[in-house]
Amino acid sequence: MNFSAYLTQGYYDELFQENGVPRPDAELLIKKIESLPENDLLLKQKAAETALLQMGNTFAVYGSKEGTEKILPFDIIPRIVSSSDWQTIERGLKQRIYALNLFINDVYHDRKILKDKVVPEDLIMSCTTYRKQCEGFNPPKGIWCHVTGTDLIRDNDGRFYVLEDNMRCPSGVSYVLENRQVLKRTFPQVFADSNVRPVEEYPNKLLATLENLAPSTISSPKIGVLTPGMYNSAYFEHSFLAQQMGVELVEGQDLVVSDGFVYMRTTKGLKRIDVIYRRLDDDFIDPKAFRADSMLGIPGIMEVYRLGRVAMANAPGTGIADDKAVYAYVPKIIKYYMNEDAILPNVTTFLCREDKERAYVLANLDKLVVKAANESGGYGMLIGPHASRQEREEFAQLIEKNPRNYIAQPTISLSRVPTIVDNHFEGRHVDLRPYILYGEEIYVLPGGLTRVALKKGSLVVNSSQGGGTKDTWVINSEPQPSTSEPPLESQSRLEQPFSSQFQSTTSKQSKGGSDA
Amino acid sequence: MLSRVANSVYWMTRYIERGENIARFINVNLNLTLDFATESNRQWKPIIMATGDHIEFEKKHGKDYSSKNVIHFLALDQDYPNSIISALRAARENARSVREIISSEMWTHINRSYLEIKESASTDFAYTNPHRFFRTIIMQAHLFTGLLYTTMSHGEAFQFALTGLLLERADKTSRILDVKYFMLLPQAGDVNTPYDSIQWAAVLKSASALEMYRKRFHRIIPKQVCEFLIFDSDFPRSMRHCLKKVELSLHNISGTPLGTASNKAEKSIGRLCADLDYTDIDEIINIGMHEYLDALQIKINDIGSNIHEAFFKLTLS
User: Fold this and answer.
1) Is residue B317 part of a domain?
2) What is the extent of the structural domain holding B213?
3) Count of domains in chain B?
4) What is the DSSP track for A160-229?
5) Which architecture characterizes domain A350-410 according to CATH?
6) pTM
7) Does any CB of chain A come closer than 8 Å to the CB of residue B266?
8) Tens-place pLDDT, residues B5-48
9) What is the model's pLDDT at position A68?
10) Residues of chain B contacting residue A235, judged by C-beta atoms under 8 Å apart
11) Is the ipTM of this complex over 0.95?
12) Residue in chain A nearest B110 by alpha carbon
């Protein structure tokens, strides 16, 4: 398979320049792919899918008696991010998360930003994710949003924009780690020679972030990942992270509040737990504090939490910062707290609660993307240019009925990456979700989840709507210590999965000088 | 460790062992068909009788105890909860809920085994190559046990895994012995004929015990076969050996020295082990083999309930 018939069709392509020449960081990969024997790439694709299936990274397809399980579709052509692009992304995300954390803290304490009328007070107070129970609360070290997955997109102008902030329970990082494992085996030599930044340190960084929350008096805090259970679609990720960090994976039924602390039910009686990485929405954490019908939560845990006797990541109440109407104010929020301009721009956003903007939105529904302020997963969304007249009319009514709950954005032509379709390549639209951890400092994982809309022409990348994933290679431009490996050409003959992996291992060992 | 997790680890290995032993069960017959090609048809019914699920079988297949029907029922029937495929599915679901506790190798292996048997259910491989099919299933279970021993720390979770595995194995060895009882019933006249000793050899083979038995007793004598499979202290599938190891694991979990008991599970396993230490095969023959095995299975079930009571039950404080 080669790229001779591949067209960028006027879109920004992540691997090719407009004139059809590979971008510098993608050259090695493209060359390798074109040099593969006929059908080899398809076999590699098949092998990758089998590997993912056997790792069990699957979700159940509901309603089928056979218990069909599927992997999230995975395309082996990686998305490559240049070092300079990444530097902007990293700086921009650190800035954004730092400011949003200050914002959340401010809203639950003095509300200075509301009093100064930078963000309208009624907008915040009408957030469905606002938690009265968190007013006046001081989370350990002042950190509310420990784990964030921010959705970025790249427009035709080549710039990255922030599309969404996910401050509650962002998922997908396990795909980043597993996709990488599989892809390393798929293109071992190209991978080794492309100077890709590793993603494998994420579990360690996450563990450090969680340990940072434990009271300093506890030398080895007991940490757990709280999952809704094995029937949750992200269960694989919950168990994967617990396993990689070597901490407990707990369900609500495993925890109990007793005399002011949270305990795990163990074979040796009750054992105290200090930090909980909860992958359960605020609503379900504590039937006493939030939804009374929650069967998944731990009755009374919020009271323990407020007394500082158990820590939680993310803190309840962070949802106010990823409300899509609040999103529109993030550049102002950054300016307000940091006196800086946002490094990563927002997408132009129209707030339907504002009369003028709503009038514009209603008049231009065929050009805009409309989103409900609190939905995710690609639900509650209208893509104007692709929608029928009837769908647009339905949305117009929804907006009129509840303007607060809707925003609109221009339809952005997301950038594309070559993707295997049958037996050739076609461009498919992608976004990028990097993961940010707020511990002792703010850390951005060099990589991220590239989601790809597999349907031709589609702009919706969510897995629930026919999306898949790709590995994301962030290139390190720092000069690397020279290796004793011969250049690629002379080795390409050897690039059988086993021999080449074996080879790179031995050469690494010899560098260490383990003569003794 | 978490009670829920201990429970899942215990059931994960129990189900793996269960799947393996159903394959061993069927192997009794496959071994016999090699020796008596013509007798083979008539011989599939006792297998189902020994499972106690003949009513369920007949609901689906009537009185047609053909090899194909029996193999399908015991190995590949997804609606029948005691089939191999159902056992592997349950093992996998338990493994899935404790993925962070077991090693990745264990998980990948169990996942893969299940996916493979599920795929084979849509072909007729099991009926056309039964020897290979069931050998593969047994070997996959062994591979899992190997991974359990060599890739997972031998801490508390491991002890629960071992407890589940060995309790199940003790129970299933008793049932393999029982298959012979059901075969024997229609033709008491066969007792002590060459035919009889071939049947006993098939039973031994199914428990991978033929060579080890011969090292100890040389000639195949029914009484000694029973003695070997029930009482031998060294053979790893004998009931006494398995139950002694269960006792040890339970004491490793609680930290209580052997000979004392800190919970009902330890008490009941201790009592049963003492019983096995001081019973001999002649007493059993006086009671009746089938009756003795029946009673033993009930005691093993009681130990299971006591383990549940002592470690898994989520009691509200």
Assistant:
1) no
2) 3-312
3) 1
4) EEEEEEE-S----HHHHHHHHHHHHHHSHHHHHHTTBPP-TTHHHHHHHHHHTTS-TT-SS--EEEEES-
5) 2-Layer Sandwich (3.30)
6) 0.83
7) no
8) 999 999 999 999 999 999 988 887 787 776 665 554 557 888 88
9) 62
10) 96
11) no
12) A54
